[in-house]
Amino acid sequence: MTEDLFREIELLREFGFTHLDIGGLRAADRGQGDLLAELEEIVTACEKCRLSKSRTQVVYGVGNPNADLMFIGEAPGRDEDIQGEPFVGRAGQLLTDIIKAMKLTRDDVYIANVIKCRPPDNRNPELDELESCRPYIRRQVEIIQPRVIVTLGRFALQSLTEKSYAISSVRGQWLEYNGIKVMPTYHPAYLLRTPSAKKEVWADMKKVMTELER
Ligand code: SF4
Question: What pTM, to 2 d.p., does this model score?
Fold first, then answer.
């Protein structure tokens, strides 16, 4: 049994699976798309935290399973909860515009949140909810293996890395997560409230484009 297979079984146990189909778990035999789809089935059935009670549906993630660039946000809002896709409301349109300005499309990148179910009234996620959901975003990153991750806002950065970074002090500086370059920047919802911060986000995205061109 390979190390990969052991790791995958361990993760599935962490996600609450007790009966494992060992024959179906050969990660090396499957592509990123298959692995993401299998994980999606697990996440869609998840009831690990109280947010499962108030969600309309799980918002798993969308985009290219082989993406070089991954955007990670905080949690679904009202529009995302209804449509089942991350970043589709006003903040989502702004993210789409940013992606277009980078001469990419949403289909070129992968977009997901650290929390997969909408917190009621768009409140901030609680610590235990972030902890319950963290294995999913980490597994998505592990499957996709992007070259660059852009974290959008404080919760995305802190939850992915499990470090208490202040976004104002690390924004625009390269960090690292499991050997992958991480560019922390502001959340598009913040940009809607503070349009003057758009130029800082654009400066961060220029660094990302330069890195991706290497
Ligand atoms: S937020 Fe995450 S951990 Fe909580 S129920 Fe939804 S998928 Fe499960």
Answer: 0.89
